[in-house]
Amino acid sequence: MVAAAVCIVLLVLGAFAVRHFVAQPFRVPSASMQPVLHPGDVLLADRSTRGTAERGDIVVVDGRGYFAPTAADGDRYWVKRVIGVGGDRITCCGEDGQLRVNGEVLEEPYLPADTVPSTIRFDVLVPEGRVFLLGDNRGDSTDSRHLLGAPGGGMIPLDRVVGEADRIVWPLSRRGAL
Questions:
Q1: Structural domain of residue 153, as residue ranges?
Q2: Of 30, 80, 118, 141, which residue is the catalytic one?
Q3: 150-171 pLDDT, tens per residue?
Q4: What are the percentages of helix, strand and coil residues in the chain, rounded to 5?
Q5: Is 109 contained in some domain?
Q6: Residue 80 known to be catalytic
Q7: Is residue 61 in a domain?
């Protein structure tokens, strides 16, 4: 009986350690990342990458106080693509209609066909220790563009990055690496 209790405790501790340090599942709440991610997809966030981000990464962020100032836990986590990191200047959109990072046109093959990079014009410098995030489905995404005038200017602190989304695990028909 004691051995069974010890096994159960070890399993619970092991599950907690995996979820906290290795990978954590998240359900995609909206269509903001289509066509790459669909509402209801369950993805795994690589917890070893928490607090870090590189341009182009799809990340899970804790949006409380930023994307969701008064959100309940169900609206706490957001999935977005990193467009800029500390020191990057991001502008949208020039006469050519393109999004630019540090003066270079950002190639965005993940955008749905006929999607404009943004209908909101902006020219921002991402502060060190923060990221600028956009959804791939720009017409249906609340992201950094929408919070440019808010505290933090739409830039999310790196310590709010929960991890990089690295694979879809559900539904089985869509499972695979991102």
A1: 25-177
A2: 80
A3: 777 889 999 999 999 989 999 9
A4: 20, 30, 45
A5: yes
A6: yes
A7: yes
